[in-house]
Write a structure and sequence with these properties.
The complex is a heterotrimer of chains A (371), B (165) and C (446).
Chain A lengths: L8 E5 L2 E5 L5 H11 L28 E6 L12 E2 L10 E3 L4 H16 L15 H9 L16 E3 L3 E3 L9 H9 L6 E3 L6 E3 L13 H5 L5 E3 L12 E6 L8 E7 L2 E7 L13 H6 L7 E5 L21 H11 L13 H24 L1
Parallel strand pairs in A: 1-5
Antiparallel strand pairs in A: 1-2, 3-4, 3-5, 6-7, 7-10, 8-9, 11-12, 11-14, 12-13
Chain B lengths: L11 H12 L10 H12 L4 H10 L4 H10 L11 E6 L2 H5 L2 H12 L12 E6 L11 E3 L2 E3 L4 H12 L1
Parallel strand pairs in B: 1-2
Antiparallel strand pairs in B: 1-3, 3-4
Helix pairs in contact in B: 1-2, 2-3, 3-4
Chain C lengths: L17 H6 L4 H9 L2 H11 L11 H6 L10 E6 L8 H8 L1 H15 L3 E6 L4 H16 L4 E4 L4 E9 L9 H8 L23 E5 H5 L1 H7 L1 H5 L2 E2 L2 E2 L1 E8 L5 E6 L4 H6 L13 E5 L8 E2 H5 L11 H4 L3 H4 L7 E6 L4 H15 L5 H18 L7 H12 L7 H25 L1 H4 L14
Parallel strand pairs in C: 1-2, 1-5, 2-4, 8-12
Antiparallel strand pairs in C: 3-4, 6-7, 8-9, 10-11, 10-12
Helix pairs in contact in C: 2-6, 2-10, 3-6, 5-6, 16-17, 16-19, 17-18, 17-19, 18-19
Classes of the chains: A alpha+beta (371), B alpha+beta (165), C alpha/beta (446).
Amino acid sequence: MEETKPQLIKITFDGIEVEVEPGTTIMQAARKIAEADESQGHLVPPAMCYYKPLPTSGGKCRACLVKVAQGSAKDPRPMPKLVPSCITQVQEGMVVENTTNQGVLDTRKSIVEFLLINHPLDCPICDQAGECHLQDFAFEHGSVKTRYEEDRRTFDKIDIGPFVQLHMTRCILCYRCVYTADQITDKRVHGVMNRGDASEISTYIEKAIDNDFSGNVIDVCPVGALTDKTYRFKNRVWFSKPEDAHCDCSKCSGKVTLWYRGDEVIRVTARKNTWGEVNEFICNTCRFERKKTSDWVLEGPTKVKRSSVISANKYRADLIKKPDFALKLAATQFKPIDDTREFVTDGETIRQQSIENNDKANHRSLLAKNN
Amino acid sequence: MTETPNLVAFTPERLEKVKDIIARYPEGRQKSALLPVLHVAQEQWGWLSSEVMDYVAGILSLEPVEVYEVATFYTMYHLDPVGKHVIEYCRTGPCCLMGGEDVYGYLKQKLGVEAGQTTADGLFTLKEVECLAACGWGPVFQIREKYYMNLTNEKVDQIIEDLSK
Amino acid sequence: MAKKILTEHINVPGIETFDVYRRQGGYTAVEKALKTMTPDEIVEETKKSGVRGRGGAGFPMGMKWGFLAKPEGVPRYLVCNADESEPGTFKDHYLMKSIPHLLIEGMIIGSFALGAKKSFIYVRGELMYVIHILEKAIAEAKAAGFLGQNILGTGYDLELIVQSGGGAYICGEETALLESLEGKRGNPRNKPPFPAVKGLYQSPTVVNNVESIANMPWIINNGADAYAGIGIGRSTGTKLISASGHIKKPGVYEIELGVSVEEFLNSDEYCGGIRDGHHLKALVAGGSSVPILPAHLIMKTANGEDRLMSYESLSDGGFATGTMLGSGGFIVFDETACIVRNTWNFARFYHHESCGQCSPCREGTGWMEKVLHRIEHGHGSMHDVDLLVDISKKIEGNTICPLGDAAAWPVASAIRHFRDEFMWHITNPHEASQPGAVYQGEMALV
């Protein structure tokens, strides 16, 4: 009998089997699971440095470390150390543990801690807040308290060119902006200077990043280290409303996301996929100079993950789901509550009840603390 | 102190040396010459100004930023003007066991400078470095290519006197 | 006198010159290898000798050579790692400056065995004077027909290049070294791919330590069996040990693997004992990155057996009671040494040398240094010791390259074995932060 070579590789990721092409990384395999079933999105390892549109990125931040419990069907031994899922290729029969492995989760918690010890935590005044990958990463995997008592690393803000500001203090040294400059612009003028925790993104001598695609460093930056000067302090991201739009551009695809406040375009960015990665890099003219609705052909609201704060925006009434959808959903997913208690209207009784409830809650939290 | 070079160009002998270095590597791999060529540049100018680094970038067909990234990564390259003699003093454990910290204190007092500073007469710049791979012969410091080993306060006196002439 | 493989002729006047080296039997191994052996036979011989990488990891050299990929039409490279920078280690420095032709001879044999036509010796930039010595020796060897085109009429061509580093411990990590050799920042690469498949210029490459390669002439001249007959068990051959610290005779010594720690430390042939009037408190046997051991555990294993200078004996007991041979940096501490201060010093070293690419090492090494600085200077608090242990655990095993482990082990081991001394610093901050103050509490001195 003629045997056909297996086209796909089968691996098990957090107990879920998935088939992927040879050469796929563990990260991409996990993303494939989530793309097929949105409810599994939480299984995908976080990526702070890896960025699929930028080949050779990844492997540095260690946020996506996972346990390979079985190397392959041929060699079932576990890998001795946790491996970066973003750059480790799958093998037939590989068994990977991510959220199912406590060691992985503990390590991830420590990576958050490491990334935060020299981060200013100035989220209240940071333009990136609300769409910051470090904020999400810390929220999902971090601790409430810091154990770091020393001074944090700080740098002065610098303008690199007329449109981009570098706030190095917030940088987590993911190298994405360096890869961007290397791979999509014809001349790189910024890079990583110095070494160790003194490393910094810099042009070394004052130099403007001046080329048609320089603005893309803003989009790839996972934190608020590289920000759009035309947008600085103009808005909180959750108050703006993204719309997909395009134009006929001679330099790039012209496919962008417009960010509205009211009727005003306050920012233009590239369109991003579910994983926060740019689909197509855009030129500076589109990004910084086309800020009128009349410059664009609108395509409709940008699809935003429901978990994002951006989705809290008010879209045009005809575009949001009808209330009856929510009621139908509630009817299928939630039990109706049988509440036969008396309807209290007397102010004093309500006050008394809330004091009692408060006491009970305090007692519960005290118990939880002691345990 | 070494002046910022006005006209940035290798001397003919050094340019020959640089060409020989570049020729050692396979075609298209001239970037490999970067570290050795930066040493040659530092030998000529004493330190690496951005003009010098841009010049080196030109010779090796690199973007200037590629040179800055490398020069700032490695500790041997001086990115600021330095004195005539740069004393690179080992501060690592084994030298300390051999009395390195005491001798270092004496040296600083004698020169009247702290790490990173240059004496007023421009003769000496003091730098702290990590292990120089001479632990059995510590305490150690290095000036250019020369290792000064088994240092004592008396030896420091002698060395500074000799170099001050 | 114990067997000498590398240093037998090191004290012969003029041994750094080609003529004297040749008169002592130098380059006969090149003649034998190139004229009478095939590359595969040399690789086999190397495997059989059991010689292990002398840079620290102790990986069998012949096996490493056997992994080299050999795709058609792609050049292969042999790169010698002479970036010796591990605190406590200065053997390669000593070997290269004293007897440069030994390394060159080994490089010719190794390059021939691996099919390399262009080989590199990457020397740390601080050793510029040694680079000049090597370049002079290479010119001599070339003039004598041992390098260059058609070596000894065999048709084999080899160009040997000495490359200078720029000051970075991390370039001793083989992939960082290759990056540096390509003219880049010394950022270690993620592995796989390993250098044996994609190394220098993305071509198959072997990176070997100076001392490892310097063993080759002897192995070729005397045979793998003779080499394997020296040493003990899987620790075959001899090892250069760099001895420093509170001993009577610091220096580089060649030992037959299997000599007892006691003999190495106390005999007049080697260290000559602790300096007069003092006692052994602690010892780092293999360079600053390996776990420090207190006196009683370095002289005897936990089972009460004599501790030997071999890969196996030194690691007996795991990290709980053992350590590692590493690169052979033998640093001796007597009772005047402050373990906390030394641990801070080593932590500062690794902080200074972290390349900064991956977050656990970039942030963790600096954090550990700051906490240790605080303890040493009288500002420590009770939870700092456990904090340090925890940080070290979070770095260990989670980084791109072994520098993270190298930074974590000295801190973790110092606390493991000298916790009381750390606590004394914290509970007696004023006294402990006085210059020269040393813990006087109960501890076993030898």
